[in-house]
């Protein structure tokens, strides 16, 4: 069973930065994409960034130019560098894994809280 563990959340002032990490352990699929989602009160869970199985990178319009997704060489850990944070970035951030050829993200971390406030 694949397990995902996020870390790096916290409280930061507007304009500040945070770096989230998500470490994968256990049975890793042979080919998979990794994504970062966020859940904010009153809104549906939103995909903010994704690295595809072949390395294709996606950032949502709301975070493009401020957030950057990356992985380590072994793709065991995915990072989300968040700069120029805004209060509307506040939420619980989840990493997730989507196996190649499967339409949904099957594996999820427990989430890490990010609060942007002065």
- The arrangement of helices and strands along the chain is EEEEEEEEEEE
Number of strands: 11
How much of the sequence lies in strands comes to over 45%
**What's the Cα radius of gyration?**
14 Å
Overall spatial form: globular
Q: Any low-confidence stretches, pLDDT <50, length ≥5? A: none
Number of helices: 0
Calculate the terminal CA-CA distance, rounded to whole Å: 40 Å
Helix fraction, binned, reads under 10%
Average pLDDT number: 94
Largest sheet: 7 strands, mixed
SSE class: mainly beta
What does this structure look like?
- There is one protein chain.
- This protein has strands at residues 2-7, 10-12, 18-26, 32-39, 46-51, 57-59, 67-71, 77-82, 91-99, 107-108, 112-116.
- It is mainly β.
- β9 and β10 (107-108) form a beta hairpin.
- The radius of gyration is 14 Å and the shape is globular.
- The N and C termini lie far apart (40 Å).
- The mean pLDDT is 94.
List its salient traits.
118 residues, mainly beta, 7-stranded mixed beta sheet, 4-stranded antiparallel beta sheet, 0% helix, 53% strand
Write the layout of secondary structure elements.
Elements: E1 2-7, E2 10-12, E3 18-26, E4 32-39, E5 46-51, E6 57-59, E7 67-71, E8 77-82, E9 91-99, E10 107-108, E11 112-116
Summarize the structure.
With 118 residues, this protein is an all-beta fold.
